[in-house]
Amino acid sequence: MARVEFRQVRKEFKDDHKGTFTAVAGSDFVIEDKEFVVFVGPSGCGKTTSLRMIAGLEKQTSGDIVIGDRIVNDLHPKDRDIAMVFQDYALYPHMTIRENLSFGLKNLKKPKSYIDEQVRNAASILGLEAMLERKPRELSGGQRQRVAVGRAIVRDPQVFLFDEPLSNLDAKLRVQMRVELGELHKRLGATIVYVTHDQVEAMTLGERIVVMNHGDIQQVASPKELYASPRNMFVAGFIGSPAMNFIDAHIEGTQVKVEGASFTLSDDVLQRLSAYQGKRVILGMRPEHIFGDDVAPNIPQDHMLQARVQVVEHLGSENLVYFHIGSRTVTAKVHPETHAYVGMDKTFVLDMRKAHFFDPETEMAIGREENSYAKAE
Length: 377
Hints:
This protein is an alpha+beta fold and 377 residues long.
């Protein structure tokens, strides 16, 4: 296996009508040998373009791409020792599963004994032994996805590339395949680069996650760090479900004030916010850190506010309660036994120990130690 490195990689597309469009803007990062790294972000953020540049399917405008100890800028995809799994499976419908698995190796003129061994190994790993003589149309979506993964495994590449491989599966199959891909990585000890728009996939699969937006890398970190210490408001709002609440606030003395309430801050938080005394900030609160007062953990009494319930969504294991603080709609993810109904004046408790603060102009986190390229623990 091998590490993958981007050295100031930039990709621009030219459009006769719109001029030059920057898809990836000067990326610098390293994917370590045997690491599982996920690129995540909204549509058009540059994640798939980054993957296609690693594969050699797109040529970077500038910068270097390194796989192992080779700069691969000018290497053809077949010479980069990578294998790619596409979201539409890309199986040959007229071939059996055995023929699909062996097709790439036959093109590489590998010996028959080697091909047979690789196909047997891949089929065993993925539970495909009983399906080798079937055609793709005879398989379920999940089974076809396994075949697509198997076709990559038989290549025994330095790097596996996955381009939204689960997007065509239903919710139950996606969960199952996430588990299988995680186990596959542990078994193969492979370097895997995985692209998805689904932050749940990213958080459950990635040892590190590359969060992208408008062609720029916003943060590279472990799932734990992205959740607990987002670098800016984009990352904070993108990671987590439901999304983080952003509330207009002011720092005054030892308190942060929002419309209708004030909350006392700890000394260490006040120290981080010292440059914002008397100024506006954006208070970030995750929905799971807002509670109903009737089913709340041991949180200081001055962390409470009262608001009128606008909407309640009953989800079984939890409820989502929506209310307003000023002009902002706020979401609380509360215990299902929390008493709340539409139109009720309800007391909510905000766990300020878990609060985030952002500069309203730059949207960057305030007082956060820069560690955006941290490795997973």
